Amino acid sequence: xxxxxxxxxxxxxxxxxxxxxxxxxxxxxxxxxxxxxxxxxxxxxxxxxxxxxxxxxxxxxxxxxxxxxxxxxxxxxxxxxxxxxxxxxxxxxxxxxxxxxxxxxxxxxxxxxxxxxxxxxxxxxxxxxxxxxxxxxxxxxxxxxxxxxxxxxxxxxxxxxxxxxxxxxxxxxxxxxxxxxxxxxxxxxxxxxxxxxxxxxxxxxxxxxxxxxxxxxxxxxxxxxxxxxxxxxxxxxxxxxxxxxxxxxxxxxxxxxxxxxxxxxxxxxxxxxxxxxxxxxxxxxxxxxxxxxxxxxxxxxxxxxxxxx
Length: 309
What we know:
Largest sheet: 5 strands, mixed
Shape: elongated
Radius of gyration: 31 Å
Helix content: 55-70%
CATH class of the domain at 21-106: Alpha Beta
CATH topology of the domain at 21-106: Conserved hypothetical protein from pyrococcus furiosus pfu- 392566-001, ParB domain
């Protein structure tokens, strides 16, 4: 993401904070070096998983250059609670640092939730589940309703729009810059309907969205569980999952399409012209019988009769 795009996204997010002061570290003088042991991660911190390779790369960067962007915290009893920057805190710990630059802000629980969600949406490695969770948090805070009521509200507004509510929703999603609320409700939020075991694997970073979506389409719970385990151990692709989920066909079932393909090749006027008149007459009779069978005007011969004929 370019610097201009980041500034634009930050400005849009800043408008969601209403009357809260500007929290950009570049504009604030209150950056302090805080002991890492005094910083606690919030129990409902939005980010759940950190890729090992990306984290290792950040640890190396921290060892060489230090932590370049301050984390955001608030004062709590016994130390500080992390609002944004958990990956930087973990990297600093792994790099052997004892302190980290931090911006200390006074923030209520609701403001901390909103700030954490906004920070989460700015990640370049954001997965669809984290995006949906963060978006629901932001919309709930903006509309001052419980987070669990957001999706029912969106679906209700799609069915029976209320102008004042639609105006609020349009404004919030426009500032987020991630599509319309209608698209969010009908498409992105669908990830929440995935089975709980798949959602947990996504939150752990063990299973990415595309393969989780392929597994979620499998209605047979036993088969889905089996293929989920195979996906994790054998690294099945989306195509592998789709093929494995299809019911196995019998030899006769597989033969029928192949016979049809061969017949399309063989049914050619030039081939017919090369046959003698008795053979042409026989082929014509067989084609007439086949046409009658396919159109339902001729009943299939009894197996006993076909053997005697």
